[in-house]
Amino acid sequence: MKNGIKKAIEESSSVKSSLLSEKGLGLIEKIAKTIIDALKKGGKVLVFGNGGSAADSQHMVAELVGRFKKERKAIPAIALTTNTSSLTALSNDYGYEVSFKRQIEALGKKGDVAVAISTSGSAKNVTQAVGLAREMGLSTIALTGKNGGNLKSVSELAFIVESNDTPRIQEAHILIIHILCELIENSLTK
Q1: Alpha carbons 175 and 185: distance in angstroms, whole number
Q2: Which of 55, 82, 117, 169 is in Cβ range 3.0-4.6 Å of 49 for a Cys bridge?
Q3: In the predicted model, is pLDDT for residue 190 greater than 90?
Q4: Residue ranges of domains in the chain
């Protein structure tokens, strides 16, 4: 067992270390600045994804609406993964592919930021929502992995974690989310 534990920790560390490249650091900074600029101009953050990425979406929103490390005013953010009545009605009435797209249509406005999380970048409901968000004038950010899938081409900013292993991608995503939350919080708090 210890060898398996050690291997998992080493793999996770290796994937996270790849974020330290100049490209990775620059992209995280650019994503943070995009979100901060939108928030300073009265926008909000809409976050979504499926499965573990849905959990990551909710985690990010909780850190923004509540607090990350500092006591401060709440930051406007919504996880599109939490309204089960909307998700099930939209999926039943229109098809699962529009489960986030319709919510973007209802809740998004020009100047907001859509943050899409998908380890594969291939989730149709995620890519369709990002496509509509761009048409509506929202800034679009993707956290993905593997080869980025379709999500990398429909998003303005796409951070592709260099791994094909879903758990390692998710671990890197949560690190990126925590970094973003800290940068956002520090920027909006004096």
Answers
A1: 15
A2: 117
A3: no
A4: 2-188
